[in-house]
Please model this.
Amino acid sequence: MKKYIFLLIAIVALTIISCSDNCSDIDAPASPSLFLDVYDEDSTTGDNIFIDSLYLDTQVLVQDYEQNDVPFNVVFDSRLMHIVLENKVLVDDTLYVKFNNPDTMDKDSIKLFYSTEKIEEECYTQFKVNSVTFPDNENELVNGIFKVKI
Model:
């Protein structure tokens, strides 16, 4: 009888341990996004356009192909642009980042194509950017951040 009680306790313990729900510990982004570090090719300092004060974050507009506004923010400490994309599977969709400084009459723009993919996990579905190209701007990907020259 003691063998059966020990076996029952072991089975219950293994069931509880093996069926733990790790879904509460998810650390996945809610939406796919891009980080851009934009700098001016004519800048003498080589700084980001926001650090260089070429543009203010209020002088930027991000739009999709149909000219709908796309949410973004400029990360205060690093002055990187964080563009939040839709939770959809997209192939070669287009974004336009437009800069306009009415005080200096400077205007620049970035056109980019991107694709997203859907990754389904046990506890969540994640949408992730899987390709980005800038047809008109020199760029490089450094630690997940696109350094783009305007």
In short: The first helix runs from residue 2 to 18. The chain has a mean pLDDT of 84. Residues 141 and 148 are 9 Å apart (CA to CA).
